[in-house]
Amino acid sequence: MSSPEPALTPTKITQNPSTSVLYPTCILFACKSGWFLPHVCIRTRKLIALFAGRWHTRFPQHGAHRNMKREYHRWYSPRLGLELGVVVYGHWGPPLMGFPTSAGDESELEGQSMVGALAQFIDAGRIKFFTVNSINGLSFYNKGAHPFHRSYVQSVFDSYLCEEVVPFIWDNCQSRVAIATMGASFGAYHAANTLFKHPDIFKRCFAMSGVYDIPTYRLSDVLASKGIRHSVDNWGPEGGHDWPYWKHQMGTYINKLY
């Protein structure tokens, strides 16, 4: 057996800056009746303030999770050489693993009110939400490192998810139940990549405004060529690359699928 590379050296990850760049793709991969059902959502224009106001009314986002059961867990990962945290929201329900955006951590989805947007589903036991950290600053955004090393770091992070976080989720749920993933922006890449690499563990994915190295319709062609049922869904004015859109989309998807 070859010796493993040295433990990863933590680097400072700055706060994810706000951006006006609106990525066009939002992909939902769902497993229903044994089939993957990706819904690819394309933004065509900005959401006007009227829609944002309606979203706040339909899906409460601020203060809705104050009485929710919340557990914070943190442990040292020997494969990463780092301590990373996981936040658990809710008492019971099918597990949903949430990834942060580019420079976010396990608290970002709560800080950006995604947890509040899904509070009614968490409190009702329709989902149990697990938010994880990322090490993007050591992998994809570590521009000073060789691409091979950056790829290696990402593979170690994938191992951390499957060998440490997944058993933790199963233990917390007291069952080896199928897990769903979700993420927005760069978190969407992690959510989709995790599903495709481990379809034996992960059965559903909500990937919003992600970038996957190939255009959305090309991805649709690839899925069709493999016999994977799916649809391309155009969100129109309700789609965009920012938290109000993602919270509305997740609320809609969870309400339909759980």
Index terms:
single chain; 258 residues; alpha/beta; Rossmann fold; 34% helix; disordered N terminus
Would you mind describing this structure in some detail?
By secondary structure, the protein is α/β, with parallel strands linked by helices. It has one domain: Alpha/Beta hydrolase fold, catalytic domain (Rossmann fold). It contains eight helices and eleven strands. It has a nine-stranded mixed β-sheet with strand order 5-6-8-7-9-10-1-4-11, with helices on both faces. A two-stranded antiparallel ribbon has the order 2-3. The chain is globular, with a radius of gyration of 18 Å. The model is unreliable at 1-27 and 29-64 (pLDDT under 50).
